[in-house]
Amino acid sequence: MAISVVAVAGQLFGLLGAVVAAGSAVAGLLLVISDLTPQVRYRRVAVMLAVLVAAGAVSVWAWRSDVPWVRGGTLTTWSGPVAADGQRVRQETVAVTDFRGARLAGADLAGLDLREATLDGAVARGASFARADLSGVSLRGADLRGADLADACLAGADLAGAQLAGADVSGATITLSAQNLAQVVGTPARPGVRAEGCRS
User: Fold this and answer.
1) What are phi and psi of 72, to 5 degrees?
2) How many CA atoms lie within 13 A of 129 on its CB side?
3) What are 36-73's pLDDT values in tens digits?
4) Does the pTM of the predicted model rise above 0.85?
5) Cα→Cα distances 20→17, 59, 71, 143, 177, Å
6) DSSP bridge partners of 85
7) How many whole angstroms separate alpha carbon 45 and alpha carbon 80?
8) Whose CA is closest to 113, among 194, 188, 196, 197?
9) CA-CA distance, 132 to 153, in Å (whole number)?
10) DSSP one-letter string for the chain
């Protein structure tokens, strides 16, 4: 039964859910053992171990889920790799976030200044970078399939190995190889014309 609970928690809540569920299951098992142990000394040891395991599981949960009193009072920073699928990323988080290998599928990064970010290996399928400034940003190996890059500034961006199939580059300032141009949707800005997201 405990194994099933851990597996379900892992599927629903990822690794964090599995760790917390496993810690809770072990703590519960130790409490059952303490009830079955006739000697008081062993009973106390089992209860102390159960409390320690439960406290460890709660600490892992609090640390990884950005509880304010654990993470210095902010809910807007992540330590990489970021898991922000489907979320709106705010400008104030950009400078303090490591986006390498980030999970950004369906995330909303529209209009952000991402010039300081590194998005190498990011999985951003269907994410919106519309009007974002990605000039000079490294997107090596990023998965940008179906991403919205309309009117984005990617001047000097490193797209080596990036997957761009189905990405919307309408009006974007971007330099693409002939192979990538055949995969994207929309027409980039004409050479010499800078997208709305380009600041200079």
Assistant:
1) 75, 25
2) 35
3) 777 777 777 766 776 677 666 666 655 555 443 333 33
4) no
5) 5, 9, 18, 31, 47
6) none
7) 38
8) 197
9) 6
10) -HHHHHHHHHHHHHHHHHHHHHHHHHHHHHHHHHHH--SHHHHHHHHHHHHHHHHHHHHHHHHHTT-TTTTTT-SS---SSPB-TTPBPPHHHHTT---TT-B-TT-B-TT-B-TT-B-TT-B-TT-B-TT-B-TT-B-TT-B-TT-B-TT-B-TT-B-TT-B-TT-B-TT-B----HHHHTTSBS-PPPTTPPPTT---
Q: Which long-range contacts (CB under 8 A, 24 or more apart) does 84-88 make?
A: none
Residue with tokens 């303090």: 96
